[in-house]
Amino acid sequence: MGKFNCYNQFMLQFLQKHKKAIIIVAILIFTTISIWYLNRHHVFNRRELRELQNNIKSYGSFSAVAIIVLVLISTLVPPLPIPVPLVEIVCGLIFGFIPGMIINYLAQIISSSIAFYLARILGRKFFRKILDNKIFTSYKKYINKNGSVAVLTLRATIGAPFNMVSFLAGLTEMNFKSFLIATLLGCIPEVILFTFIGNALQTSRFRISYVFLFVILLGGVGMLTTLWVLRRKK
């Protein structure tokens, strides 16, 4: 029993001492496995992109509305298999950079505003499962303490799922005006990034799967950075 306790103590000390190195190694392993998996199973390939593009273009003059509706549904119903970044990329592919950016921007503002009010109307009981999650509880405390600055930071760094930020903000005492201003500014980097990628796909031939791997890593880095900041402020 004594040897077991010594071993546990040694492992805890080792993990604390080499925490940064372990995180870097974990990220490298995750990246390697992800590249292998995405290449093997052809996840998020150009065929899927073309199918979504053709479906949206089939609405003709209402294609922009279809983009906004897709983003809205994907925001309010997270389990949907169509990620919001994929929709934003397709928007850039269909409409080009400037028009696509405007459409994506409107879609983000509309969907986040509805999610905010939905959380405020339905209340804490409906979102009990979210609040039971330690990570999301930390985010909520961060938003509750720092208000619009927290929303702006989480949006701009992609440090948390976009819809979760809206839901959690709606569960705090933050007023809608502060939330809206933070969202108007905070979602600009994401909108520019994904619309630019979609527009670039018109002439470039890089793999879509690598784009999403980059997005996952970017979001992971943003989340780790945010959690690190939260821990330091405790």
Q: What is the CA-atom radius of gyration, in angstroms?
A: 20 Å
Q: What is the overall pLDDT average?
A: 75
What fraction strand?
under 5%
Shape from CA axes? globular
Note the run of SSEs as H and E.
Answer: HHHHHHHHHHHHH
Put simply, the count of helices is 13
Label the structural class. mainly alpha
Q: Could you tell me the number of beta strands? A: 0
Largest sheet: none
Segments where pLDDT lies below 50 for 5+ residues?
A: none
Measured as a percent range, the helix fraction is over 70%
Question: How far is the N terminus from the C terminus?
Answer: 35 Å
Task: Describe the structure in your own words.
- This protein has about 230 residues and is mostly helical.
- It has helices spanning about 1-15, 20-40, 45-55, 65-75, 85-95, 95-125, 130, 135-145, 150-155, 160-170, 175-185, 190-200, 210-234.
- Helix 6 (about 95-125) crosses helix 12.
- The longest helix has 30 residues, at about 95-125.
- The radius of gyration is 20 Å and the shape is globular.
Give a summary of the structure in a few sentences:
The chain is mostly helical and 234 residues long.
For the structure shown, list the relevant keywords.
234 residues; mainly alpha; 82% helix
Q: In terms of topology, how is this protein built?
A:
Layout: H1 2-17, H2 19-41, H3 46-57, H4 63-76, H5 84-95, H6 97-126, H7 128-132, H8 134-146, H9 148-156, H10 162-170, H11 176-186, H12 188-200, H13 208-233
Helix pairs in contact: 2-13, 3-5, 4-5, 4-6, 5-6, 5-12, 6-10, 6-11, 6-12, 8-9, 8-10, 9-11
